[in-house]
Design a protein that fits this description.
CATH superfamily of the largest domain: Metal-dependent hydrolases
Strand content: 15-25%
Number of strands: 19
CATH topology of the largest domain: TIM Barrel
Radius of gyration: 21 Å
Largest sheet: 10 strands, mixed
Structural class: alpha+beta
Amino acid sequence: MIINADLHIHSHYSAATSPRMDLPTLAKEASRKGIQLLGTGDCLHPKWLSGIKELEERNSIFYFKGKEEGKNTNTNFVLTVEVEDERRVHHLLIVPSISKAEELYESFRKYSPDIDSDGRPSLRMSGEEIAEHARDAEALIGPCHAFTPWTALYAYHNSLRECYGDMVGYVLFVELGLSADSSYADRIEELRGLTFLTNSDAHSPYPIRLAREFNRFQVDDMSFEELKAAIERKRGRKPVLNVGVPPKEGKYNESACIRCYKHYSLSEAIIRKWRCECGGMIKKGVRDRVNELADCDGTHPEHRPPYLHLIPLAMIIGLALHKSASSKAVNEIWESLLAEFGTEVNVLVDASIGDFRTANFNLDAHVIEAIKAFREGKVSVIPGGGGKYGVIELKPKGREEAREKDEGIVVEGDAGRGQKMQLSLLDF
């Protein structure tokens, strides 16, 4: 069976999260999104774990059963938590059972000042020590958003071994983060044997945040052991697709000032000693960091699944129609597409373009062409940097655009007068 999984989110017990990050809301929105398996996030937090305990459990998977407008909204959860080590590196743990989560809580508690107050606890421990505790609890572990210039493995270390020491062999996966994809990470030899995860790190349940990145796995059934086998790529279980935003759209893709967002080449930043002309700090971008670490040509290993660059459906509709993703017009089309095709993932990944043209409602041609453009990689992105997201452009048909060699799509109608359609994640 094929499942879609977003394994890294947070509850409302983590800092800077929406109060709507509760189990009923997450179950409802994951079902609408098309996610069959959702990480719980924050599973070491006593109050959040207490709510999870009330769910039905089978094979270390927790089932939330609900209804929305007469439809079942059954969603599966697996225990997960993000923790911060003493170097501020973040790690994702996928935990096999309630008892193991409680065991980890007890073993981490003496090293943490905030494990009872923050769903993403800070630990006065090294990455190697955290991995040892994860191994003892039979939990899986890997670095979160490994390339971002804050709170990430490669922000503070030059290799996996520097972070995990003698436990490096226990690390099975690397979470890429919004500013990187497989083409970046496979340029680093030590990562080529690992499974790449693409997760949302969602702090709110809205469709533009939850599962904005997700994984598709081949498994035999819904269980922790099957998920583990898929991440290990054993017995025919494996990841078959990574889905994520284009890396250039990530807010730390290029080196840029965190105050005025002016972009710099790596050599310029070094010459300026990482200080912008405005006086702000220049933060090294993911692209430059990967270039520093790269030690192979980036050819993908045979086990690497395809990587599909997408943004959330509401954003694509808004981009196509020149409207906010939260506008009434966009929401009406979003709801109509879900009513027709079942889930957002079905719309974005699985339905054929022909199905859109024969839908039971009049779907704007610009929306169809925008979805097609993302599937085919025919979009342009002005890179983000310094904490500001990149800007996506759909290039409409015009005399000059038709002659351009860079990436674009053809649309008809008012947009065909040569104006570009742009979207930045900051707009939402």
